[in-house]
Amino acid sequence: MKKRRERRKYYNWEIEIAKGNTDRFYNSTDWEILREEVLKRDKRQCQFFLGKWNDGKHFPYAIKIIKADTVHHIVPIKQRPDLALDINNCISLSFEAHEIIEERHRWSWRKKKKPITEERW
Questions:
Q1: Where are the domains of the chain?
Q2: Hey, which of 4, 44, 60, 99 would disulfide with 105, CB 3.0 to 4.6 Å?
Q3: Is residue 32 scored above 80 in pLDDT?
Q4: Element (H or E) spanning 63, and its range?
Q5: Nearest-angstrom CA–CA distance, 118 and 5
Q6: What per-residue string of b and e applies to 74-109 under the rule 16 or more CB within 10 Å gives b?
Q7: Angle CA(49)–CA(54)–CA(59) in degrees, nearest 5?
Q8: Which runs of consecutive H residues, i.e. helices, occur in 1-121?
Q9: What is the mean pLDDT of the chain?
C-alpha cells in the first residue's frame, strides 16, 4: 500500500462535485481511503469478469479472474454527489471492464488514417 498523504482540510464534496470539481475529488485523500476500502472488500478482483456484477447493458464475454485496479461508481457522482463517498455505490473493476462499462472500448479499434503521401525532408 502506498504512503498516503495527510488529510488537508475537510471538503463538503456534495457541493464541490455539484460545482464541477470532480478532479479535486478524485485527487483527494477521502477518495484514496474509500478506493482502498472497496478494493479490500472485493479482494482486488474484478467483479464484472467474475460475473458478480453487471450494469444491465454490458455483460462479460468470459468468466475469469482478473486483478482489479479501478473503482467504479455505480451511480455516477455527477448524478448523485451525495453518494460519492458511499462504499455501497462503488465496485472494483479491471481497466478493461471499466472501459466496457463506460463505453470507451468502441473507439479503440479505429486506426489512425495514414497520410496520402509520406513526407520526406
A1: 13-107
A2: 99
A3: yes
A4: none
A5: 50
A6: eeebeeebebbbeeebbbbbbeebbbbbeeeeeeee
A7: 65
A8: 13-19, 22-26, 29-41, 95-101
A9: 84
